[in-house]
Design brief:
Blueprint (H helix, E strand, L loop, with lengths): L1 E2 L5 E2 L1 H10 L6 H11 L3 H16 L2 H4 L4 H8 L4 H24 L70
Helix pairs in contact: 1-2, 3-6
């Protein structure tokens, strides 16, 4: 057992078991320590983030034929692997942008208005108040392939792209 930042204690063995149930093996002790010692809601964070790749990004690997526009592009001779890579790139960018937006909507002129947060909850209990913040920071590291999105991130417009690779209108910021 370890003390949490909130003053409670955590059963590390139970926490390890819960993480393993969700499929975490690599860096298990880092996630456990962050929750047990620092009181960070890491189990909720991992559960949320680890579902995003298979449900929102990698689903394009198998569901391409279900999309009418993708079927049309393939019928017109588009390369299947490139289309899948492009769709996954767009999906990743959308998920990343939404996670970033949860953290900062960019509206400094609305600081006095209500905002939002994703918080940890448990069935039958009120929200804990433990915010799952900066989720965008861990999205790449949870790519189930272990490649941290290397096959799709270079396709996204951003500062990592060489000027020669950018299409007109790509915003490097």
């Amino acid at each position: 057992m370890g003390d949490t930042a909130g003053g409670g204690s955590v059963d590390r063995a139970a926490l390890r078991g819960a993480f393993r149930r969700l499929g975490l093996d690599d860096e298990l002790e880092l996630w456990v320590a962050a929750e047990a010692e620092e009181g960070m809601p890491q189990l909720a964070r991992y559960r949320f983030l680890s579902a995003l790749w298979p449900k929102m990004i990698d689903t394009w690997r198998s569901d391409t034929d279900r999309n009418r526009i993708a079927r049309s592009l393939l019928a017109d001779g588009a390369n299947r692997e490139e289309l899948i890579q492009f769709a996954r790139s767009v999906a990743y960018d959308t998920v990343f942008s939404m996670l970033y937006y949860l953290e900062d909507d960019g509206r400094d002129d609305c600081a006095d208005l209500p905002t939002w947060a994703l918080v940890q909850t448990r069935a039958g209990e009120p929200p804990s108040g433990q915010v799952l913040g900066a989720l965008f920071e861990d999205l790449l590291s949870l790519d189930p392939s272990g490649n941290e999105g290397a096959d799709i991130v270079p396709l996204l417009p951003g500062p990592w792209m060489k000027q020669a690779d950018r299409a007109p209108g790509d915003d490097p910021a």
